[in-house]
Each structure stands twice: as structure tokens, then as C-alpha cells.
């Protein structure tokens, strides 16, 4: 049988701003839940719930070190998000090109 599907998908997992902050924090390296909790104005239990959702989506890995649980970022699932967003880059690129032309034309007119 194949691997079980994640309980949460990447899009659900990153929808919450706290979970996005957690991912940024873990990008700097592995941390234990107490150390992570110090960065947030919420209980350690609330932080653990957010970490569980990220773990369910495959974005965070946990491992036991003695009595401590340590968490680390697993960025591979973010590729799904990157691929989805890349479709829309063409719209951003068009806006940036138009802005560049506008700014350059204003500079020429203003000289």
C-alpha cells in the first residue's frame, strides 16, 4: 500500500499567519517547542496545535531527543505552492513591465 495522504494540504496549512511565522522561524534550524513558543503570544499548547497541522501537511518534521520534541522545516511540500503560484507570475510580470515603462516615461518627460 502507498503512503497515507496528508491530513491537511499545504494551502490549508499556510493559510494561518501564525503557521507562516512558524515556518519562517524553523527555516533557521531545528527547535524545541518551548523555544518556539517563546516567539509567540500564545500558550505552548496552541503552538503545538499549529505545529501538528504543519506536520500533518508534511511541512514540519518532529523527532524526539530525550524528553524533548524537536521540530524542523521540511520545505519540499512548498514546491506545490510554488508551482501553483508560478502560473500567476505572468500577471505580476505584466504589471511590473507596465510600471517600468510608466516610470521611465515620467523620467523622460520630467527632464
From TrEMBL:
Gene3D superfamilies: Winged helix-like DNA-binding domain superfamily/Winged helix DNA-binding domain. Keywords: DNA-binding, Transcription, Transcription regulation. One of its GO terms (molecular function) is DNA-binding transcription factor activity. It comes from the Bacteria. It holds the Pfam family HTH_5. Residues 1-93 form the HTH arsR-type domain. Signal peptide: none annotated. PANTHER family: TRANSCRIPTIONAL REGULATOR, ARSR FAMILY, TRANSCRIPTIONAL REPRESSOR SDPR. This is Transcriptional regulator. It comes from Polycladomyces abyssicola.
